[in-house]
Amino acid sequence: MARTETLSSPSVDLIDGRPWRSADGMLAPALAAFCQRGLNVCLASRDAANDPIAAHGLACRQHGAALRVFMLQRGNDRILRAIEAEAPVAAIFSLPPMHRSIQLKAPRAKLATLLAEDVPELARQTAALRNELLAVGFSTAFASVFCAYDRHDVVAIIFVPEQAFVQTRGPIARSAPP
Amino acid sequence: MNHVSLDVIRNCLEGFVPSVMATCDADGMPNGSLISQVHYVSADHVALSCQFFNKTRRNVLATRRASVLVLDPLTLAEYRLTLDYEATETEGPLFEVMKARLSGIGSHTGMQGVFPLLGADLYRVRSIESVVLPRLVHSAPARNLLTAIRRTCATMAACFDLGILLEQTLDCLGTEFGICHAMVLILDADAGRLYTVASRGYPRSGIGSEIALGDGVIGVAARERVPIRIGQMISEDEYSNALRVCARATGSAWAERTRIPYPGLDAPQSQLALPILYAGRTLGVLFAESLEPMRFWYDDEDALAAVAGHLGALIAVLHEAEDTCTPARPSDPAPVRAGPALSVRYYRADSSVFFDTHYIIKGVAGAILWKILRQHHTEGRVEFTNRELRLDPGLHLPDYAGNLETRLVLLYKRLAERGTPVRLEKTGRGRFRLVVQCSLMLDEIGPDRGAAA
Questions:
Q1: CB 3.0–4.6 Å: which of B254, B283, B330, B437 could bond B276 by disulfide?
Q2: CA distance B64 to chain A (A)
């Protein structure tokens, strides 16, 4: 696996010194572009007993003030049940190999099926992530399979972010953007 | 709920791909993070690296629960571990193993030295869910490790001599495990150092070279009595550097004169050091390294740990066997060459022996060499037994009696390697012969070695 050339720091992260959402409640354009460029997407929620649940996502699409994060149903019954029960959700958007990351949180989310507009965006972002993985040294087989999905198994998790944090690994993780 | 055993998904814990960790705060708000290391501790425990006091850490301390998603880098199978936090260790074997591995993981993500390990967080694994079944078929492994262990142990068990055992063990690492660079080091507990008694695959053997206890993967493995494995090293890495620096930084001109260069690779990518243990005691370290990154996985560590364990038991058995003597094999006396006498100088301060200006050996092995050369010079003796050396209080042998045999192996090899006109030949169990092919001029110096040097 290849090494990255330099570490990212908050000063080069897109949110530095800028509001993370606009007056209309939508994600700031730079942040929205970052989240939709084709990243490693991870999700966290919790069940009724407050047991946390981690999961992988595939991609996301901004839809008004809401984000539609796509994930596979298979293997993710527990987190999908938790979201169906209106559990809070956190989503991490990370540029491989994980140096630039942002975390968005919402107190509740809901499940939905894919919209027609979601399908090309899902394909574009997973293809972009595959290219990122290849660029940092993962094998073609690994990158291709990691980004593969069965479209009929994909659902959308919809939430309006209420908090955003720099998640770039290191002591500064979790600093709130202005 | 444990559908999968942690023992069979250890490839997911190699640190190839960061794992996803979810925690909750006391109010139930989830938090996600990417973590470098999920370390296998036992069939029902893992340890996570604690590198910052961040939100994840605060959540774990508040709720003691976590969910971690891990990925098999070969098959891309994915598993979700539900964990209960138990304790944090800030020193000891688990901490040292994780610190060493984090160094390797850090180096391949460009983060070496950036994020120090603050603690090893120990978790009980409450359940393991299969999230995604294997998606890639990886090629058949290069070897069957169980077969390799069996053949290696069989070969080792046929050895009747410590020197042969060490050589055969390293030969088997090559033939059975495909490991081209390896060495065996024996611990001198009194001196707090390990010295090389056998090596394979290096331009120079490095027999007699020393590593301080606690330095590099070898020193840490011996001190903590746990295997240390690093899969992605860089030249600036503290662990790989430590071995070279330790062998280099001797601190004085005298020490420099008696230094034998460490033989290891200049730019290893993978290293594995396994303590050789017997009856609660650390005898030494079996060390392997490679130019290839991620050469050693958990299964390789287990396999070589079995070999190291067998080696420890056989070293102990052979030590005991060498205490009894068989009759010496007769041989013709070596002809003494004409010409100038060989100057043999012995420095009492560190028991170092020089032939003319060439450093030969020091420490207990140096004291043994000096004793037998003196007896040869004054009494004409050439036949010696291990037992008489063991009973000689003047040699100050370390408390572990077995140290004598490893010192003799070191001495045999060092003399042979230097091609000196003095050599030792094993003539039977517990016996050896001193072969001197020239006249000697002995000179004992000290204790002020500096003036003599």
A1: B283
A2: 10
